[in-house]
Each structure stands twice: as C-alpha cells, then as structure tokens.
Write a structure and sequence with these properties.
Blueprint lengths: L11 E4 L1 H5 L8 H13 L4 E7 L11 H7 L7 E6 L2 H9 L4 E7 L2 H8 L3 H5 L2 H10 L3 E7 L3 E2 L3 E2 L2 H13 L4 E6 L6 H14 L5 E5 L6 H10 L4 E4 L19 H10 L8 H15 L6 H5 L9
Parallel strand pairs: 1-10, 2-3, 3-4, 4-5, 5-8, 8-9
Antiparallel strand pairs: 6-7
Length: 307
C-alpha cells in the first residue's frame, strides 16, 4: 500500500535571514550583508526580506537599512521586502526604494509594548495609513501577526485576538497576512486550527507562516500547514534569528532544512540546496558562532554510494 501525503506541488519560500536572522546579532559590515544577499540570490530564492526600517537605537543591526536597500537594484528578479513597525518606518522604506513592506502587529499587548511601545489596538490602527502609503507607491502591504499562538509576557494568545487583527487588517487594506510563532511554542494541531480560522474570516487572502524553531517543532508545524495548502513560508539561512523583544525566542527554521524537506518530498522550492549550505556557512562565519542548522552540519541526503 502506498501512502501519499497531501502536499502542494511547490512552495513560495521567503528568506528572512538578512532581517529576522541578523536583528539580534551584533552589527556586521554592510558589505558582508550584501555578500550574504548575493549568495541567497544565487541559490535561486525569489523572495527575500532584506532589512528592517526600525529604530537603530532599538535594533542596531538594522541601522544600515538604507544602504542595503540601495544595493537591491542589482537583483531585479527578486521580490524584495522590508519590515516596518511604524508609519515613519514605512515612509523611510518607500523613500529608499523598497515597495513591498511587512508591518508587524503583535496579538499580545505584552509583546506589543516590548516590541513597539504600543498596545495591540494602537498598532493595529496604523495598518490603514501604512497600506495607503504602500499602495500609492505601487507596492504591497503584508501584516505579520506576531505572538499569534503564545506570548512570553501574557501567556497563550486567545484566537479571537488573532482573528480580530486579521479581519481589521484586511478591511484596512492589507494584501496578505502572515502568522508568526514568535517564541516557537506552536505545534501542528494548533498551527492548523488557527490558519483555518483565519482563512474563514479572511477568504481569498493569502495566509503565510513564520515559525521559530525554539522548541524543535518548527518544521512539524510547517509540514502540517503545507498539508492544508499553505505555500507562503518563511525560513532563515542557517537557522539565524529570534526576536530581541521576546525573552527566550531563538532562531527560525533553517532555510536549507526546509528546502531539504520539501525537495525530498517532491515539493519544488526553486532553490539550490548546495548554494544555500554555502550561504549558511558564510552566515555562520559572519556572526562568529555556530548556527543550529542540521543540514549545514550534515549536508543533504547522499545520492551515491561512497567509493
């Protein structure tokens, strides 16, 4: 008997290492960031989150956002995006030439206050203004719902709060939504349930997934989401990343681990695993510490017998 998993034929990966991955690290030279971007583009990735236009005092590693943005024209075939946390950040990103923006709204007041110094309701009220700015510039506005499952300060996040953010974001002009497991606590059943609930109240709106691998369940949650048709998935080269304003939040799902999983199951990613491993090795050297990626350590599945 042959058992077949219900899987999409392809996924639409977004590499978030240059932003989410580096935001908690000591600042590295802009030239090294651009070399990392070059390697990621060379791997075949077509969606890359390049930087964040946020306070350089709060996130020193993103202080060179304008310089990074100025170099992106070298790779016109990539869908570049940047994260913003305010209307001012959105305007700076647009002025720097980035047209596709992600705006973060935390579903938990505790995390929202730590992250952007505003409660959830106040952050949510900014969606309309940011979406309008982005649309006037010909770009897209995605709302990322942070702490969608759990908050390090407030505990479990009630699903109703996430659904309210999703509904209001779409009504205010968000083009897409993304649910973020900011502290890496979600497991497959909860992942699937919340995605299905969001889809029900926001029909026709793409819902992506941003998993952290803090407790080792990131890939399991992604696989479960893929089985219900989620194709917009974030990952970070080498497993870099974490939220500087969420105690205990460690790295994202490594991009090369996700690509290995997908390609071995026949799900196309468009990415070259060998080049991704090279990029992860470079990222590891750049930050000066070992990265958690298993594929970085072990490589992909051997396809030939050793001599």
């Amino acid at each position: 008997m042959t058992t077949t998993l219900p899987l999409p034929t392809a996924v639409n990966l977004r590499e978030v290492g240059p932003r989410d991955g580096l935001q908690i690290e000591r600042p590295i030279p802009t030239a090294r960031k651009l070399r990392l971007l070059e390697l990621l583009v060379s791997s075949g990735l077509k969606r890359i989150e390049a930087t964040a236009f946020v306070s350089p005092r709060a996130v020193p590693a993103m202080a060179d956002a304008r310089e990074v943005a100025a170099a992106l024209h070298q790779w016109p075939d990539v869908h570049w995006s940047a994260l913003v946390a305010s209307e001012g950040g959105a305007q700076r990103a647009l002025d720097a030439g980035v047209r596709n923006l992600e705006y973060v709204v935390s579903a938990a007041d505790g995390h929202s206050l730590a992250n952007v110094k505003r409660k959830t309701a106040e952050a949510l009220a900014g969606v309309a203004r940011i979406a309008d700015l982005v649309h006037q510039a010909g770009g897209t506005c995605e709302v990322i719902v942070a702490t969608a499952w759990d908050c390090p300060f407030d505990g479990p996040t009630p699903a109703d709060r996430v659904l309210h953010i999703a509904r209001e974001s779409v009504s205010q002009g968000a083009d897409t939504l993304c649910l973020a497991d900011t502290i890496g606590t979600a497991t497959p059943r909860r992942v699937v349930q919340l995605i299905e609930d969001v889809r029900e109240i926001a029909p026709g709106i793409p819902v992506g997934l941003h998993m952290h691998n803090t407790r080792g369940a990131g890939l399991a949650g992604i696989l479960a989401a893929m089985q219900i048709g989620v194709v917009d998935i974030d990952a970070s080269v080498g497993g870099l990343g974490g939220c500087p304003f969420a105690p205990g939040a460690s790295g994202n799902v490594p991009t090369e681990e996700l690509v290995y999983l997908c390609e071995d199951m026949g799900v196309a990613t468009g990415a070259d695993l060998d080049v991704l491993v090279e990029a992860a090795r470079f990222a590891q050297e750049a930050v000066g510490r070992p990265l958690p990626s298993g594929v970085l350590k072990a490589g992909g599945r051997p396809l030939t017998s050793p001599a």
